Amino acid sequence: QDSRPLVIALHGGTGHGRDTLWHWLTSARANDMTVMAPTSIDDTWSLFQIELDLHAILEHLKNLTATIPQPSAILLAGMSDGATYALQLGLKRPDLFPNIAAFSGMLDPSLLTEPPSPSTTQHIYWLHGHRDTMFPFELANESVAALKAKGLNVVLDEQPGLGHSFAASRVPATLDWFQTAIEGS
Fold first, then answer.
1. DSSP state of 60
2. Tens digits of residue pLDDT in 118-160
3. For residue 48, how many C-alpha atoms fall within 13 Å in the half-sphere facing its CB?
4. Minimal CA–CA distance to 9: which of 86, 124, 107, 116?
5. How far apart are CA 159 and CA 8, in angstroms?
6. How many separate domains does the chain show?
């Protein structure tokens, strides 16, 4: 049975899963991975009630024709609001989503007060542009430092010329990082 690694790609605010899918599909296929790109229930992800969209994501997982891999082989990735939701959901539910890739996202500071789960190794790949005016790079850099101080495995991929946009050219590097995280689990 097929149990390839799975990338769950979350769109940004007012986006749609079908648009996000194409950013990930070619690189995922080249790495023998499956991509699922759900659409948020509302205009954006349920940032203040994470359970709402979590339920929909879990329903999508049930409908996959492929066998769902172990959580260690699942990457929860997102752009902007999708990245913010991926960080919130992943940090609250590391049992389901131990691997997170955040492209131009923001971390809810209240998550830094919660202790990390001792039973799960969390891997976070955070890509952020220095020219991001929506979610300034300085805040992302501070969040990454705080997560590292809590003992989480965080890689910061700084993009000096990037504003608040999806760095599609970095998807292959993100998936290479994910493959390394899987092999280290």
1. H
2. 655 889 999 999 999 999 999 999 999 999 988 899 999 999 9
3. 1
4. 86
5. 23
6. 1
